[in-house]
Request: fold
Amino acid sequence: MDFTNKTIWITGASSGIGEALALEAAAQGANVVLSARNETKLIQVQSACKKLGSKAMVLPLDLAQADQFSTLAEQVIRQFKQIDILINNGGISQRSLATETPIEVDRKIMEINFFGNIALTKAVLPFMLAQKSGHIVTISSIVGKFGFPLRSTYSASKHALHGFYETLRAEIKDDNIQVSIVIPGRIKTQVSVNAISKDGKAHNQMDEGQADGLSAEACAKKILKGIARGKKEILVGRKELLLVHIRRFMPWLYYRIVNKIKPT
Reply:
């Protein structure tokens, strides 16, 4: 796939992987729609995209406010005529023990990471079905493949995305719409800093593993390369990705390793 003049809608575009995806897509000639809650930061990303020659649209969006998504999708269609790629990148992580996390915090994580994610997809799908083309991308996580300490509901929300999008792919296989699930490992972003703790407030700490992770820019390049190739799963990271394969083929070794890994 050549991204020139393709319209790519990216959530969580104000920072981290989302911002890096927007800039890389703009550099490759795409029109980008930038969504997140922080409009001020989105405008800064928009300015950077325009300097790269991209037509960039700022469209503030709160994943917890799904009732607005159909209207927002219509705005994108009015601006760019069609939506070629939707990248569901927005979300929130977690740093708290399952035994200490109130159900209200669990519900908040699921509402944003799962229900908000699929609600936006459902708002965009009718337009993709009408244009008989499109590509839905969701950013999962390595913990969408297995559980990991301090991330119980975050991991559950990512597991749920795998179930939904694997099913969706099978259901729309004849409609010329592709579905890709991205599985990042440790990427150097603010995700651990912004993660919520048991009281629902920001964790405000950078994980050691996160600090040493793959750069968001390198991650974005790999994701777009995988999208261009039409890959169904796109694993991005470093040596931590080995756990995915160990969990699949040698579960006994996975359990031994994961019990020794520092969860931050």
